[in-house]
Amino acid sequence: MKLEAEFVTSAFALEDCPHWRRAEVALAGRSNVGKSSLLNALTGIKGLARTSKTPGRTQSINLFAIGDSLALADLPGYGYAKMPQAVAQRIASSMSDYLEHRSNLAALVLLIDSRRAPGREELELAHAIRARGLTLIVAATKCDKLKRSERARAIAAFAPLETPPILCSTLDGEGIEELRRRILALA
Ligand code: GDP
């Protein structure tokens, strides 16, 4: 079962986001964390992630309607080293505005490479979501790259987030169904 997703709009600021009652689930992560691949794996729309990678849309919040009562908000990737400082600041401020004030936001799916520990940005995003009493879901991406012996250590490295990660791989499909279930439960 896939999430039937339909691209609705790109928003550069909170005011540009649609006025609807859908519960929104935001996805955030560093550039290259595997967010587009995960969006593709979760949804039934081919090229959905490409929509989010279209030049001009990589710095915006891309909104997708899912069924009748849910929406996904693909937040811009952050932490790209070559990004001009001014652009990085604009993205950070539109993201925090969205996460702190979007009234129909239900949850944040925070994507972190399973070979890394959460960094300052991720801890701040997690804190912002908890401060509002919203749901935090942590997806540890590219877990196929972990050796069996490295999995426990990888999970332990995520402890500062105080939410057990879902180990995910778009290569072998691990964790995708669980993540989809957790998202659908928010509708
Ligand atoms: P985004 O920048 O966060 O949207 O990341 P992409 O989805 O474009 O993926 C970045 C790179 O990681 C690409 O080369 C993908 O092929 C690779 N990648 C994405 N997901 C996985 C995964 O689950 N396992 C592995 N091994 N590689 C992945």
CATH topology: Rossmann fold
H/E series:
EEHHEEHEHEHEH
CATH class descriptor name: Alpha Beta
Q: Please, how many domains?
A: 1
Strand order of the largest sheet: 1-3-4-2-5-6-7
CATH superfamily: P-loop containing nucleotide triphosphate hydrolases
Low-confidence stretches: none
- Give a count of the beta strands, DSSP E runs of length 2 or more: 7
Largest sheet: 7 strands, mixed
User: What share of the residues does DSSP label as strand, in percent?
Assistant: 15-25%
Q: Give the helix/strand class.
A: alpha/beta
Bound molecules: guanosine-5'-diphosphate
The general outline is globular
State the CATH architecture: 3-Layer(aba) Sandwich
Helix content: 25-40%
| Gap from first CA to last CA | 16 Å
Rg, nearest Å: 15 Å
How much is the average pLDDT?
92
Counted by DSSP, the helix tally is: 6
Can you characterise this structure?
The chain has 187 residues and is an alpha/beta fold. Helix content is 32%, strand content 23%. The protein has one domain (5-184): 3-Layer(aba) Sandwich (Rossmann fold), CATH 3.40.50.300. It has a seven-stranded mixed beta sheet with strand order 1-3-4-2-5-6-7, sandwiched between helices. It is globular and about 45 Å long. Guanosine-5'-diphosphate binds at residues 29, 31-37, 77, 141-142, 144-145, 169-171.
